[in-house]
Write a structure and sequence with these properties.
- This protein is α/β, with parallel strands linked by helices.
- It has two domains: 204 residues, Aspartate Aminotransferase, domain 2, CATH 3.40.640.10; 104 residues, Alpha-Beta Complex (Aspartate Aminotransferase, domain 1), CATH 3.90.1150.
- The protein contains eleven helices and twelve strands.
- The strands form two sheets. It has an eight-stranded mixed sheet, with helices on both faces. Strands 9-10-12-11 form a four-stranded antiparallel sheet.
- β5, α5 and β6 form a beta-alpha-beta unit.
- The chain is globular.
C-alpha cells in the first residue's frame, strides 16, 4: 500500500505540469476513472442537472445518473473540424446545472478547443455557478506543434482530471489525478478513503520517475512520432474506401474517429470484426454516437499495419459489394 495522499514529490511533479498550483492542489487516484468518479460524487446530487459534451468518453454521465442527476447532452458539430456547439451549450445550461463536463482534447474525435471557445465555456459555467469538470488526459498527445492549454486557472470552480495512461504511455500503473482548489482536494481525499485508499507504493514510485522533466520530454516526443506515422499510414489506407468511410484529421489523441455509411449498428459491427478477424476497434455507441468507429493509433507501426489489413479483410467479408 502506498502513501494515502501519494508522496509529496509525486504530487509536486504533477502540479509542475500546470500553472498556479502546488502539491496541495493534487489528489493522486487509481487511474483517471477514479478521479472522474470522486469528482462526480462531490458535485452531483439527486435532482441535479449536468451537461456533457458528446461524443465523449462515457464515464461521468453514468456516475451522475446513478447519483440521480439528469444528463443533458450537447453535441460536437462536424465542420472543417469537430467543434462544440456553444450556442446549444448556452441554451442547455440553467440554474439547475451543477456540472459542465468537457473532454479536451476530445475523445474520440481528437478535436481541441481554442482559447476563445474555452473562455466562452468558462463564461457559461460562471453564469450559473456550475462546476467545470474537464478530462485533460490527452494533453501531451498533440500531433502538431501546438500544446493544448489547460482550463486550470481560468475559473475557480474548475476540476481537472488526468493520468499516466494515455500521453505518458503507462496505463498499467493506474495512476490518475485530480487538480482543483485545496478544499475540494481535501473533500475528495476523504471520499477516496472509502474507495481505493491509495495507489500501490510501486506505482507511486515509478510514476515519480515517469514525471521527471527529461522523461516527459522523451515520452511526448516518442508519442508524437508514433501517432503521426500511424496517422499517415491510416490516411493512405482509408483512401480507397472514401466512398464509404471518412474521418476528420485529429489534432491530438491516439485515434481516428471514422464515419461509415453501411447499414449496421456500430456495436454489432465491432463485435463481428472482433470474433471473425480478431481486430478490435471501438464502436461509436460507446461515445454516444452510432455509425462511427474509433481506431487507435498508438500501436507500434508494424502491428498497426497488420491490424488495418485485418480490418480490410473484415469489411470485405461483411460488405463485399462496397469493399471489394
Amino acid at each position: 500500500m502506498g502513501i494515502h495522499k501519494a508522496p509529496p514529490l509525486l504530487r509536486q511533479r504533477i502540479s509542475n505540469l500546470y500553472e498556479g498550483v502546488d502539491e496541495n492542489n493534487v489528489l493522486v487516484t487509481s487511474g483517471s476513472s477514479e478521479a472522474i468518479f470522486l469528482s462526480a460524487v462531490l458535485t452531483v446530487s439527486k435532482g441535479d442537472r449536468v451537461v456533457m459534451m458528446t461524443p465523449n468518453y462515457l464515464s461521468f454521465n453514468g456516475v451522475a445518473e446513478a447519483l440521480g442527476a439528469e444528463v443533458d447532452y450537447v453535441p460536437l458539430l462536424k465542420k472543417e473540424k469537430w467543434e462544440w456547439d456553444l450556442d446549444c451549450l448556452d441554451e442547455a445550461v440553467s440554474d439547475k446545472t451543477k456540472v459542465i463536463s468537457v473532454c479536451n482534447p476530445n475523445n474520440p474525435t481528437g478535436s481541441v478547443l481554442n482559447l476563445e471557445q474555452m473562455l466562452k465555456i468558462v463564461e457559461i459555467a460562471s453564469r450559473v455557478g456550475a462546476y467545470l469538470l474537464v478530462d485533460e488526459v490527452y494533453i501531451g498527445s498533440e500531433l502538431g506543434s501546438n500544446h493544448t492549454k489547460s482550463f486550470l486557472g481560468m475559473y475557480e470552480k474548475t476540476i481537472v482530471t488526468s493520468g499516466l495512461s494515455k500521453s505518458y504511455a503507462h496505463p498499467g500503473l493506474r495512476i490518475g489525478w485530480i487538480i482543483s482548489g485545496k478544499r475540494f482536494i481535501e473533500e475528495a481525499w476523504a471520499i477516496k478513503d472509502y474507495t481505493t485508499i491509495a495507489s500501490s507504493s510501486l506505482s507511486q514510485h515509478i510514476a515519480t520517475k515517469v514525471l521527471e522533466p527529461e522523461t516527459i520530454t522523451k515520452l511526448r516526443s516518442r508519442t508524437k512520432v508514433l501517432l503521426n506515422k500511424n496517422l499517415e499510414t491510416f490516411s493512405k489506407w482509408i483512401l480507397p474506401y472514401s466512398n464509404h468511410l471518412s474521418f476528420l484529421k485529429p489534432e491530438a489523441g491516439g485515434f481516428a474517429f471514422v464515419k461509415y455509411d453501411m447499414d449496421i449498428n456500430s456495436t454489432d459491427l465491432v463485435h463481428d470484426l472482433r470474433k471473425n478477424e480478431g481486430v478490435f476497434i471501438v464502436p461509436g455507441d460507446s461515445f454516444g454516437i452510432d455509425k462511427y468507429f474509433r481506431i487507435g493509433l498508438g500501436h507500434e507501426s508494424i502491428g498497426f499495419s497488420k491490424g488495418l489489413d485485418l480490418l480490410s479483410e473484415g469489411l470485405t467479408r461483411v460488405f463485399p459489394e462496397k469493399f471489394t
